[in-house]
Amino acid sequence: MAIRLGSTVINCTGLDTMTRFWGAALGLEPASGTDGFRLLRGSHVNLSLQRSSAPVSARDQMHLDLYTDDQQHEVERLLGLGARFVRHVEDDPVDDWVVLADPEGNLFCVCAKPADEVRDARARATEP
């Protein structure tokens, strides 16, 4: 493949606060950065934080979906790290997700997805 996703970038005003939150939330380590940008690296994903002059003021154009086998545990863990509960959506019997906001108000979802479902979807995506 000639192109791949290298990192998702979140704009933020508090670079240190967001580094602590997202680093702990996803098990990422700060790898490099400047006063206005920080790359967090993990074994399977990178996340970048970019300093913004203004806080989040409207619904984001995109957000992260985090998949887990233990939604309740992860939601409680993320709330303990500083996330804020927004809503729990379980209208569809196939989909169940909790919308949270990070310390600066960026929305993200914690989706109840069994590990085998995620593995199967990943395998289908890499088939020729």
From TrEMBL:
UniProt superkingdom: Bacteria
Residue ranges of domain VOC in the record: 4-113
One Pfam family, short name: Glyoxalase_6
Signal peptide: none
Identification of the protein by name: Glyoxalase
Protein species of origin: Amycolatopsis rifamycinica
